[in-house]
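Reopening closed ticket. The problem is back. First fold of the pair:
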Amino acid sequence: MIFNDRTTPLSLLKTRRSGKPRDLIAPGPDLDQLHEMVAIASRTPDHGKLFPWRFVIVPDDARAALAAKLGEIVMAEKADAGPRDVEAAAQFATQAPALVVVLSTPVQGHKVPVWEQELSAGAACMNLLHAVHAMGFAGGWLTGWATYSDAVRDLFGKEGEKIAGFMFIGTPARELEERPRPALSEIAQIWSPSPNGG
C-alpha cells in the first residue's frame, strides 16, 4: 500500500512514516528548506520555555569530513575495530542527501526535571520528521553507537548534552510501504476508578 497523501493535516499525520536512510536519494532539501524544517521542529512542547534542544545541520560539503572523524573515533573507541568499521562509519555519515543532528541540551538544576526536558527533545525530533514529510521528503531517525559516544557528541555539542538522533532526509528511492501497526486495543485503554480498572 502506498502512503503519500499530503493534502490535509490529518492525512499528513496518518501517512507519515520513516524512510530507511540508506534508501534516501536526491533530491534532498536545500538549506532554506532545512531551516524551515528546523523552525517547525522547534514548535514543540517545552515546559519552562527552556529550549532544551539544538539542531546542527551538517552541510553536504562537510559530510566527508564527518565520515573521516567518525572513522577515527570508531578506531579509537573499539578495541577490535578494523577497516570494515571505518567503512561503516563513512557510509553512516554520508547516506541520504541531508543530515540534521538533534541534541538534547537540558538545563541542569532547573525546577523542570531533566526527564521532561529530554522528552521535549524527542518531541522536537518527531516534529522535524513531520515537517520533512509535509515538505515532500522522507526522513529516518537513527541512533547507534555514534549517538552514545562522547567523542562523537563533542563534534556537535559539549558535556552535559546528548545526541537525540541523526535525522537523515531525502527522497525515497521507491514508494514507502506501510509497516504493521498495533491494534488500538493493544495500546489504548479507558481508565476506571474500580479496583480492576488500573
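Second fold of the pair, where the issue appears:
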Amino acid sequence: MTSEESPTSGGRLPVPQLGLVALFVTALVTSQVTAAKLVGVELPVALPLAGETLLVPAAAFAYAVTFFASDCYAELYGRKAATRLVNVAFLMNFVLLGLVWLAIAAPVFAPASPVEQAPFARVLGASTGIVAGSLLAYLVSQHWDVFVFHRIRAYTGGERLWLRNLGSTLTSQFIDTVIFITVAFVVFQGLPPGEAIGLIVGQYVVKVGVAVLDTPFVYAVVAAVRAREDGPAPAAGIGD
C-alpha cells in the first residue's frame, strides 16, 4: 500500500484511518469550544515582544492535535484523502456552531438547571470575530499544511518524515496564528498592532514546542499503522 491509496474493506474505513479522522474532528471541535479561555504559559526568560508570560487560547492545545492527525493521515492515505478530511471537518464547524447556538437559544429551566443562561451563553457563544478568525485561519492553514507536506515528500523522495512533519506544521501554524489574531483581535476588536504582534509571537512559540514534541508520535503512529496494514516493515529512524 502506498500513501496515495486509501485501503477499504467492503467499503468500510479501516480502524486506523477511522481513528485518525475521529481524532482530527474531535480535536477541532474541542478547540472551537475552548477558544474563549486564555492561558498564561510562564517562561524562565523574557522573549522579545512576548515577555515572560505567553498568552495563548486554551484551544491551542487541542488545535495542535489537528496538525498531528492531519500529518499522519496525509502520510498514510495521500494528499487527496487529507484534503477531503480538511474540507469535511470545515463543514463540521458549522454543524458545531449551529448546535451550540441552538443550545444557547433554548430557554433555560432555571429551577433545575445547574448553569444559568448568562454564563452558559458567555462561555459557549463565541464572538463574531473569534468565529470568523477561527474559520478563515483553519481553512487556509490546514490546506497549506497538506500542500507543503506533500511537496516536501515529493522533494525528498518519500524520506525524512520528520522534515515534512515539521516543515508543514511550523509554516501552517504560523499562518494560522497570524490570520486568527489579525481577524479576531485587530479587525474585530481594534487591538493595536504592537500588542497583536506580541500575541502572535507568544502563541507561535507554544505551537513550535508542540510541533517538535509531536514528531516522534507521528513516526510511531505511521509505523504502527503500516505494520498493521502491510505486515512487518523495516524500522524507520528519525534521520531517514
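Update: turned out to be a display glitch only; the data is intact. The chain has one domain: 15-105+123-230. The domain at 15-105+123-230 is CATH 1.10.1760 (Arp2/3 complex 21 kDa subunit ARPC3). Please close again.
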